[in-house]
Amino acid sequence: MNKFSKILQLFVVFLKIGAFTFGGGYAMIPIIQKEIVEKKKWITDDDILEIIAIAESTPGPIAINSATFVGYRVAGFFGAFFSTLGVVLPSFVIILLISFVLREFQSIKAVQYAFNGIRAGVLALLIKALVGMYKKAPKNVVSYIVIAASFIITAFFDINVLFVIIGCAVFGLITSLIAKRRAEK
Amino acid sequence: MMVFLDLFLTFFKIGAFTFGGGYAMLPLMQEEVLAHKWMELSSVVNFIAVSESTPGPFAINMATYVGSEVGGEFGIAGSIFGSFCATLGVVLPSFVVILIVAKCFERFKNSFVVKGCMTGLKPAVVGLIGSAIISVALTVFLPSGVSMAGLMASIKDVAFYCYLVIFALCTVLAFKKVHPIIIIILAAVLGIVTGYVL
Q1: Do A138 and B79 make contact, defined as CB atoms within 8 angstroms?
Q2: B197 to chain A, minimum CA–CA distance in Å?
Q3: How far is the CA of A95 from the CAs of A165, B42, B67, B183, in angstroms?
Q4: Average confidence (pLDDT) per 10 residues, chain A, 185 residues
Q5: HEC profile for A2-28?
Q6: Facing residue for A173 by CB, picked from B54, B116, B190
Q7: Do B190 and B135 share a structural domain?
Q8: Cα–Cα distance measured from residue B45 to residue B118, given in angstroms and rounded to the nearest whole number
Q9: Which residue of B has its CA nearest to A129?
Q10: Does B165 lie in the same domain as B99?
Q11: How many whole angstroms separate alpha carbon A63 and alpha carbon A84?
């Protein structure tokens, strides 16, 4: 198969993924598996595991990271470009349209009431997300210190979140270095 | 016109410094959007619900929406261009980093520095979402302000208890793995009922 048609197919597959996965991120992985591994056989199941590991340890949304990585693996730079474009495009168009509609409807009383209830529902969804994230985090002293420190500093102090993120990365690096030194002795 | 550059740069920063995807972005997003006075916190929370009910990743949805809101003062073309700048900004860091990583994959995978940073970043995400939950909880339960007076005003208000019940119900459903869209629809209906009855 020539490269041009591969790129076109990547674009279409990721357009589909962008249009039909709700909640983003991990929800996409099974669909990538089905479309790219099982149907097209462009990458293997092992690649998928690698992609998840990479997506988690690089900045940015998991959906974008996976699309770019799969696209690059299959068809180089233009594969990466069109896969990413494909996965972004549906969100972009849908949300743009919604933003126009929301602007018109926001002043309606019933809509305001609905959103008062919805915010309480969103709080519940965030708590569910928090528990999921906690289960995935490592369970050791360093991890607990970082969880407590990042929570307290961000929630109760007026410090830029950016510094908290950088600080946690540096702290993780330093403690890993110390652990490595100790192991070597 | 500076506002479009600002949208691009701000969302570039958000894209470059959030790990773990999804709600891990919330605290930084919230901080930037509030500092720029682009949106109120309650609108950000409303939009989380919109994003859960529409396809696509939260970060992209949020960037597109904020871009459209901010660019909106220049009309429809401004909305579209604002969305474009913010979305491009949030996507670009991922795109570039992944291209680099894909080229030197083996070295990245075995890198001690990357692994070390991740031991700090993974738990940090938990703390960050925790702090986002606090600020969302305050908008839900203390709409009249974070103070003793605000608290007293809230607990005298019947609506406070209604939202508490909605929240408790939704939490139970969320942990029973009910789909987020169903939870949002239910919360909306209960919110409307609460609003009209009180």
Answers
A1: no
A2: 11
A3: 28, 18, 10, 20
A4: 85 90 72 85 83 82 88 92 95 92 85 90 90 87 93 89 90 92 86
A5: CHHHHHHHHHHHHHHHHHHCECCHHHH
A6: B116
A7: no
A8: 28
A9: B23
A10: no
A11: 9
pLDDT in tens, B110-158: 888 888 888 888 889 899 889 889 988 988 888 777 777 777 777 788 8
Q: Residues of A with CB below 8 A from B126's CB?
A: 130, 133-134, 137, 147, 150-151
- Please check whether residues B42 and B8 belong to one and the same domain: yes
Do residue B32 and residue B46 come from a single domain? Answer: yes
Number of domains in chain B: 2
Cα–Cα distance measured from residue A122 to residue B41, given in angstroms and rounded to the nearest whole number = 13
Are residue B183 and residue B86 in the same domain, yes or no? no
Strand-pairing partners, residue A22, are B55
Joined tokens for residue B44: 């950000």
Which domain range does residue B153 map to? Answer: 146-198
Cβ proximity of B15 and B29 under 8 Å: no
First to last CA, chain B: 45
ipTM of the complex: 0.86
**What is the rounded CA–CA span in Å between residue A142 and residue A138?**
9
Q: Are B55 and A20 in contact (CB under 8 A)?
A: yes
| The two structure tokens encoding residue A8 | 């076109």
Nearest one of A130, A119, A129, A157 to B41, comparing CA atoms:
A119
Question: What is the pTM for the complete model shown?
Answer: 0.87
Distance in Å, alpha carbon of A46 to nearest chain B alpha carbon: 14
- Is the Cβ pair A147, B124 closer than 8 Å? yes
Which chain B positions have a beta carbon within 8 Å of A177's beta carbon?
116
DSSP A119-169: HHHHHHHHHHHHHHHHHHS--SHHHHHHHHHHHHHHHHS---HHHHHHHHH
Is B128 found in the same domain as B59? Answer: yes
Shortest Cα distance, chain A CAs vs residue B152, angstroms: 19
Q: Last residue of a domain, which of B96, B118, B141?
A: B141
Provide φ and ψ at A43, rounded to 5°. Answer: -135, 170
Residue of A nearest to B67 (CA): A96
The whole-angstrom distance between B172's CA and the closest CA on chain A is 8
**What residue has token string 């139970």?**
B172
Cβ-based contacts of B86 with chain A (< 8 Å): none
Backbone angles phi, psi at A137, to 5 degrees: -75, 150
Residue B176: closest C-alpha in chain A: A128
